[in-house]
Structure formats: structure tokens, C-alpha cells
């Protein structure tokens, strides 16, 4: 029996229209009744999934959001990810929790840098991808050029499932190649309001394009799609709502139900009777009024019941989950039960961390959620020295969320924070002030990158640490870290200490 669950992420380069598509999927799926747009003069649209203050100020997504909706008996768990490359860690971890992805491409820009990076992450995990070519109501590139670019750059077979009837000023709708119906624009705004022309008269050039497309590209093959070798391609406009319903239908019919998850000692099948899951994200202060802290858990097997006791790998003590949450952005409701593929939120006070496995029995550990070595290191300068305790709490919270990494040097009292991208530093300062009422500044650190160090023989590691004490620190878990002044220094030190391992990633 196929599970009625579809857990998927939306990935894209910034400004390709990912957040707008997220809203319209929720609207089409009946999860909301308004598209989450603020119409007041002078205000930009604010997507409901972008709840953080800095997201609303800058019009970008900087944290993953989880939204659940149900259509025609199928429960969709939609994970909206940050498009900006500075938040690639959060996106990577989110992609460990999904079974498929929707890749959004701007019709005028094609494959962009961040799209390609995110696709490579999907490929590493064999995540099947449906492609949505957005903004076809505007002037864009030739559909054949877009399809060829997807095929060439991403090394994928492509299968067009719909086709734009004109683009930009000559846009007349979107043809569904399976049904033969054309979704037509209506009204002054030329949006899709449900009018489908089932017996369309198409221009001769469009008929020729369709014949070429169907003859020149692959036919849809469900197995090739689920193996990650083929991507079905839908054309549309998220803003004008063309192709959104077709996308939901494609996810319902073609996207895989919950898949086995990599774990030790063996992968965990969704058919396993015992409840297991892993925490892929922690978010503090989603509701600033209550100073809450939510761990997002992907349920991998078993039927979860409210009040169950689960054991986290972090400390091995069973915890009772009394108030599990299902999400729609900031809105939430208590979940009495959940099934494999579902994402539930577990309120806690520092008990759960990213990478924790939760299970009814010990002995299972999900794998594949690493920490990445930071590319930017900064020292934190507190403007009010009396708030040292609040700063420590804030940095610990955000390190647990994966927003930053915190390193405590062996010598000196200045804490060092590490991030992958510059924008993460802006988020850090914004959240320190908005959520923790801590004013701080950042100053350059005398280091450029960090490596986790280990050795088979503890004596070798101790000898290295003693000789390089000024460059040694501990992460928030107490693991030894070597802070390097440059990538060259990393290579130089590695050559000098062959018995010591220098890792750019660390399994959580």
C-alpha cells in the first residue's frame, strides 16, 4: 500500500520565485485563503513562510519553514528552504529530511549558480526532482534553450509535461501535454482563474514546437524520475497561478512516498513498526512572546502517538513528547499522531539538537547530517558587559540551530563564531538584538578557517594540541578544533602532523 504522504522541499536560486510558489501551493492546496500578500501601498509582499524580522525587511528566506496541507486524501509536507547561498548548511540539512524536491528556475535566467549547488546536494542523496520553469508570463528564454540547459548542465534527461503558449507579451496560457487542455489567462491581471480550454486552437508555430518537444525529449519514466535520472518539467507562473495545480497533481501521482533513511547499523524502512526519527533543524523564538524552542523531527518509521516516550541519542534519557506540533509557518496545531514522512515539532529547552536520533529503543542512529567548516570567523564584542550571560545563551541557542558555530579558544576569553556566508552574520546580529535584547558587534578574528582534529592515539592529539595551544579551541560539544590563519596553513600543518586528522566536516 502506497503511503498518502509526500514530503518535499522547494529549491532555487534567490529571486526565482520560490517563496511565491510556496504560497500558491498552499493556496491551491487549501491551506490558506489569502496568498499572504500585504497590499498596502509601499509595502512589499510578505510571504507567510518568511516570519523572521530580517526576512521581512530584506524580502528573502533565511531559515527553513515547514508547512503541512492536505489535498484529495494526500498529506503534503512542504519544506521551504533558504535560496541564498550563505544559508546552504540549513538547506543541506533540510534536504536530508525530504523524499523529493521541486526545483524552481527563472524562465529568463535559466540555471543559476545556487540552483546548481542545491541540485548537486540532491544528487548526492538521490533525491528525485520535478522542475518548475517560472515566470513564463514575462519575456524569457526559448523553452528549448531552457530544456537543453537543464539537460546539459545538470546531466539529466528532461521530459516536458507542459508547454507555454507564447511568452511575455504574447503569452496565451499553458498547455498540459497530458490532458491537452490550455490554462487561459483571465481579467486585467491576466491571471489563471480556473478557465481551461479543453479543445484549444493552437497557433501553427506552437503546434510545431510541441511536436518537436515530444519527439526530441524523453518520455516520462517514473522509475528514471525516482532514481534521480530524469526530471519532468512544468512551465508556469507562480505569481499568476499558472501550472500550480498541475505541480500538486504531479507530486501526488509521481513523487515517492516516504523512503528508507540512511542509518546505523542498517537503513531504516518506513515499514518498521517502531517509531524512529531524526532532528534536522532546531528553531528558537518562532513565537517571541513565549521564548519557545522547537526541534523539527522527520518521522522515519512507526506511528507516533502524542505522549509517547522517545530516547534521543544525545543523552540517552527517554523524554515524553506531550505537545507535538504540526506546522503552517507560524500557525501550529497539536498533533495527536503522525506517520512516516511527517515533520513534527517538539517543544524543548535544550534537550534536543540537530542530528539527534529519537527512537523507541536505543541502538539506531541516523547518519548524514554534518557540520561544515566555517568560511568566515569573527570575534564577538559585547557592547554591555553585564549581558555576558545573555550572550552565551543566545550563541548557544543559535549554534544548536545551526545558524552559527561557536568556538571557545584555549587562550583568551573572546568567543569566536564561525559561519559559511556573510549574510549569516547579519542574521546573528539582528536576532541578538530582536530576540535576546543583546547589542553586540563583530570584529575580525586572527583566523580564517577551522578544522576538527582527531587522532587514533590520544597521545598524538595531546602533543599536537600542546604545541599549538594558541590556535586551539573547543566547539560547544567540547570537541578539539584547530583555528587556522589560512588554507595554506591547514595544508602545512597537515603535512607536519601526519598522525592527526583534520576534518572539514563533522558528523553530528
Share in helix: 25-40%
Q: Write down the Rg.
A: 24 Å
The shape is globular
Strand residues, percent: 25-35%
Mean pLDDT: 85
**In the CATH classification, which architecture of the largest domain applies?**
3-Layer(aba) Sandwich
Main β-sheet, spatial strand arrangement? 28-25-27-26-30-31-29-32
N-C termini distance: 34 Å
Low-confidence stretches: 36-52, 54-64
Number-wise, the strands total 33
Structural class: alpha+beta
What is the CATH topology descriptor of the largest domain? Rossmann fold
Count of individual domains: 3
Write down the CATH class of the largest domain: Alpha Beta
Q: Write out the CATH superfamily name of the largest domain.
A: P-loop containing nucleotide triphosphate hydrolases
| Number of helices, where a helix is a run of at least 4 consecutive DSSP H or I residues | 12
Largest sheet: 8 strands, antiparallel
Pfam family, one: GTP_EFTU
Family: Belongs to the TRAFAC class translation factor GTPase superfamily. Classic translation factor GTPase family. PrfC subfamily.
Domain Tr-type G: 3-259
Binding site for GTP: 12-19, 80-84, 134-137
Amino acid at each position: 500500500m502506497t503511503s498518502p504522504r509526500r514530503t518535499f522541499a522547494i529549491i532555487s536560486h534567490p529571486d526565482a520565485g520560490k517563496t511565491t510558489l510556496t504560497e500558491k501551493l498552499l493556496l491551491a492546496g487549501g491551506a490558506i485563503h489569502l496568498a499572504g500578500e500585504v497590499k498596502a501601498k509601499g509595502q512589499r509582499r510578505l510571504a507567510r513562510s518568511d516570519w523572521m524580522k530580517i526576512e521581512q525587511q530584506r524580502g528573502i528566506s533565511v531559515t527553513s519553514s515547514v508547512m503541512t496541507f492536505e489535498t484529495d486524501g494526500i498529506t503534503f509536507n512542504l519544506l521551504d528552504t533558504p535560496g541564498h547561498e550563505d544559508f546552504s548548511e540549513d538547506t543541506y540539512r533540510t534536504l536530508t529530511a525530504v523524499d523529493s524536491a521541486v526545483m524552481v528556475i527563472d524562465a529568463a535566467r535559466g540555471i543559476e549558480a545556487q540552483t546548481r549547488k542545491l541540485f548537486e546536494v540532491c544528487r548526492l542523496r538521490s533525491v528525485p526532482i520535478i522542475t518548475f520553469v517560472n515566470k513564463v508570463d514575462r519575456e524569457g528564454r526559448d523553452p528549448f534553450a531552457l530544456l537543453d540547459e537543464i539537460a546539459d548542465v545538470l546531466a539529466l534527461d528532461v521530459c516536458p509535461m507542459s508547454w507555454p503558449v507564447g511568452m511575455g507579451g504574447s503569452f496565451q496560457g499553458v498547455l498540459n501535454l497530458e490532458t491537452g487542455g490550455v490554462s487561459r489567462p483571465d481579467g486585467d491581471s491576466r491571471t489563471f482563474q480556473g478557465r481551461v480550454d479543453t479543445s484549444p486552437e493552437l497557433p501553427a508555430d506552437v503546434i510545431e514546437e510541441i511536436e518537436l518537444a515530444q519527439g526530441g525529449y524523453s518520455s516520462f519514466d517514473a522509475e528514471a524520475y525516482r532514481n534521480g535520472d530524469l526530471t519532468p518539467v512544468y512551465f508556469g507562473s507562480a505569481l499568476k497561478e499558472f501550472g500550480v495545480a498541475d505541480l500538486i497533481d504531479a507530486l501526488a501521482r509521481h513523487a515517492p512516498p516516504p523512503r528508507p533513511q540512511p542509518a546505523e547499523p542498517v537503513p531504516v524502512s518506513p515499514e518498521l513498526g517502531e517509531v524512529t526519527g531524526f532532528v534536522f533543524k532546531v528553531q528558537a523564538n518562532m513565537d517571541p512572546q513565549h521564548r519557545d524552542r522547537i526541534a523539527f523531527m522527520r518521522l522515519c518509521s512507526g506511528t507516533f502517538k502524542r505522549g509517547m516516550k522517545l530516547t534521543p541519542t544525545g543523552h540517552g534519557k527517554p523524554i515524553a513528547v506531550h505537545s507535538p506540533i504540526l506546522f503552517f509557518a507560524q500557525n501550529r496545531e497539536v498533533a495527536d499522531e503522525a506517520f512516516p514522512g511527517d515533520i513534527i515539532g517538539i517543544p524543548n529547552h535544550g534537550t534536543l539538537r540537530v542530528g539527534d536520533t529519537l527512537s523507541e529503543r536505543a541502538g539506531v542512529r541516523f547518519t548524514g547530517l554534518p557540520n561544515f567548516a566555517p568560511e568566515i570567523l569573527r570575534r564577538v564584542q559585547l557592547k554591555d558587559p553585564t549581558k555576558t550571560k545573555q550572550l552565551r545563551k543566545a550563541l548557544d541557542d543559535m549554534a544548536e540551530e545551526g545558524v552559527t558555530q561557536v568556538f571557545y579558544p584555549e587562550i583568551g576569553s573572546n568567543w569566536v563564531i564561525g559561519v559559511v556566508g556573510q549574510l549569516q552574520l547579519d542574521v546573528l546580529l539582528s536576532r541578538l538584538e530582536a530576540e535576546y535584547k543583546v547589542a553586540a558587534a563583530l570584529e575580525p578574528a586572527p583566523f580564517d578557517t577551522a578544522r576538527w582534529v582527531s587522532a587514533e592515539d590520544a597521545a598524538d592529539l595531546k602533543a599536537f594540541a600542546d604545541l599549538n595551544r594558541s590556535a586551539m579551541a573547543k566547539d560547544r560539544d567540547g570537541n578539539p578544533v584547530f583555528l587556522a590563519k589560512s588554507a595554506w596553513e591547514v595544508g602545512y600543518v597537515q603535512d607536519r602532523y601526519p598522525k592527526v586528522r583534520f576534518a572539514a566536516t563533522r558528523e553530528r
